[in-house]
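Dear Dr. K.,

Following up on our conversation at the group meeting, I've run the structure prediction for pre-crRNA processing endonuclease from Niveispirillum cyanobacteriorum. I'm pasting the input sequence below exactly as I used it, so you can double-check it against your construct before we proceed with anything downstream. Let me know if the numbering doesn't match what you have in your notebook.
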Amino acid sequence: MPFGVKLRVRGDFACFTRPEMKVERVSYDVLTPSAARGILEAVHWKPAITWVVDRIHVLKPIQFMSIRRNEVASKVPVAKVKQAMKAGHVTDLYTRADQDRQQRAATLLRDVDYIIEAHFEMTDRAGPDDNPAKHMDIFNRRAAAGQCFQQPCFGSREFPASFELWTGPVPAHSLPTEQADKDLGWMLLDMDHHGDPGGHRCDDRCVPLFFRAQLLGGVLRVPDRQSGEVRS
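The predicted C-alpha cells came back this morning:
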C-alpha cells in the first residue's frame, strides 16, 4: 500500500459508545474504525483526501470500568438555533446546565493502547495542487511533530488521546489468550454520507454501516466499505 501510515494512540480512558445502548453509555471492546478515522483527521485532513482504516492493533488488555457522571439532559433545539441565526443574535440561545443536569452511568475502557494502520485515497475534490505525496508528507510531518487541528480523543472530549507516528514494526501485544482471538460482535464501521466520501455532516439520508468485528492475534481487520461483509 503506497501511502499507508501507522499511528500509535494511547490514553487513560476511552468510550466508543455502542449505538444499541440508547440510555447508558457502554463502550465497544476496542477502538472503532470511525473513531480511528476521526483521530487521523484530527492530525491532517483536507477535502482532497479521505482516510481508510485498514487494521487496528490492540496492544494492551481490554479492561472495563463503570463510573457515574453528570450530563446535560437535553440539547438546544435546532429550531431555536435557526431562529437565532435568522434574528442575527444569540440572546435566547442558551441552556442552563445547573437546571438540566442528570446523572448517568457509563461503562468505559481504561488504559488503552492501539496502533492504527490506514491509508488515504484522493477524492474528486482534489485540485491541481493536490497529490498523494504532498498529503503523505504533510501527515508525516504533523504527526511526528505532535501537531493536530484539534486534540484527538477516544470517543469523548473528556478522554484525550496522545499520538505518535509509528515507523517501526508493530510491537507484540500483551492481551491474554481469551482476548487475543475474540468475536466482538457487530461493530459500527462508519456512516455512509449518501455517497460522499468526504462527507462529515450527518442528515436524515445518512446510513450507519456495520461489520462483524473479530480480533485475531490482537488485530482487528477492517473490511472495505463496498465488501459483502458490511451491512447497513
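Two things stood out to me. The two ends are 27 Å apart (CA to CA). The chain has a mean pLDDT of 90.

Best regards,
J.T.
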